[in-house]
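Dear colleagues,

I hope this message finds you well. In preparation for our joint manuscript, I am sending the Efflux pump azaL (Sparassis crispa) sequence together with its predicted structure, so that both groups work from identical material. I would be grateful if you could confirm receipt.
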Amino acid sequence: MHPARDDGQEPDEETALLSQSRAEGKVPEQAVTPLPKLQIFILLLLQLAEPITSQCIYPFINQLVSELDITGGDEKKVGYYAGLIESIFFATEAMFVLQWSQVSDHIGRKPVLLTGTGGLCLSMICFGLSKTYWTLVVSRCLVGMLNGNVGVIKSMMGELTDSTNMAQGFSLMPVVWSVGATVGPFIGGTLAKPHDRWPGVFSGPFWIKYPYFLPCATSAAFTTFIFIIAVIFLKETVHTPSQKNTGASVSREDTDCVQLEAFTKPATLRSLMVRPVLLSVANYGCLALLDIAYRAIQPLFFSTPIEYGGLGLNPAAIGLILGAFGLMNGSFQALFFSRVVHRWGPKRVLMTGMASFVPIFAIFPVINLLARTRGTTPLIWCVVALQLAISVVMDMTYGCVFMFVTSSAPNKRSLGATNGIGQLVASIVRTIGPASATSLFAVSLERNWLGGFAVYGILILLACLLFLVSLPLPRHPWKHDESQ
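The corresponding structure tokens are as follows:
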């Protein structure tokens, strides 16, 4: 980041972070600072571990719950118990993510990131060895309790970038998530029940007793590899009091583009309750709520029979669609996100992404009506492709909202707490969002509200209301005079 102001004035608790990196004189256009490639690469590896470990269970979780015989033979209850396992992570994360983010402001980012990565590994091993429903629940609670990485990674990304390359740095995060969201289910679906697929290699009683241990162990092994890489090569970006007193400094990349702020006291939670932080976090929460509702309804719509308001696709077709979206989304974010933000500005891109939820939800009933009247014709797939393309535009909103949340921090020592508040809000809405959206989907069909399409009307109305939250945002991440 750029050095502090020459007049020695300390930023107050309402001063946005990016104001510290702007010179007092007006410069027409700043040169783009090169990214510290090695450190950001390690940071993205740490992020990659999360979608791989969290989503590798999705292909087999329903079958695992069914085999545990906790439903009493009622297959209709499998979704309820499986959904609880999937949601419990967000619930426990909401309880602990803010604390971990605050801890990282005091002891540094690296210890917290290593603890979270170790928690991912331990949780996956426990999950693979679980033989009862409640041990599955405990293992998911464990990862939510130990893993505060999601907020800390964003804080560290903010410390490794400045106002000239922040969009470039944050554009890589959705790409990595898309890769993990593709690789994770592939590991889970391919390596589950290896004694059936490769009996010559996995014929022992262990693999019969624990048929889902191999995908869990594989993701845990990958996480362990990332843990070792981070231990050796990841550099701390937070000055602790001991480092300041001993004169210790953080090693820099050859580009020497990362300059750390002098030691300052982290802000209290009360001091973070200011307009820049609250407005940025509110937009993050609105985005997370609409997005998780969309992600919950999308596979449900694809699998529901046409006569009941869906598209009636089999799991293979659904996997192909979601995989194609992951590839398309990751490629677009990597190639065009920073260019689009540089051209149009983060606020315009964010508002466009929030507005895109309206056509995304509106396309669902269009697809079903076309399927009822014309069958699964090429026109259907064109409309599905259109919805996925709009979803790619929507996903750019995440990079923009991360920029606003990070830049709203009063100072670098408060980055962890600021991102922790944002992640806390996102975790809460992601805990209640899926069940609310899918229940609304079911009730709309059961009671035939608006021909079974009432769920989409309600979500469109919600999207329009939440879009208004983005209007007060500044055109660019927070400046000094805009944060007062």
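For the figure legend, we might mention the following. Residues 370 and 379 are 8 Å apart (CA to CA). The longest helix spans residues 415-446.

With kind regards,
E.M.
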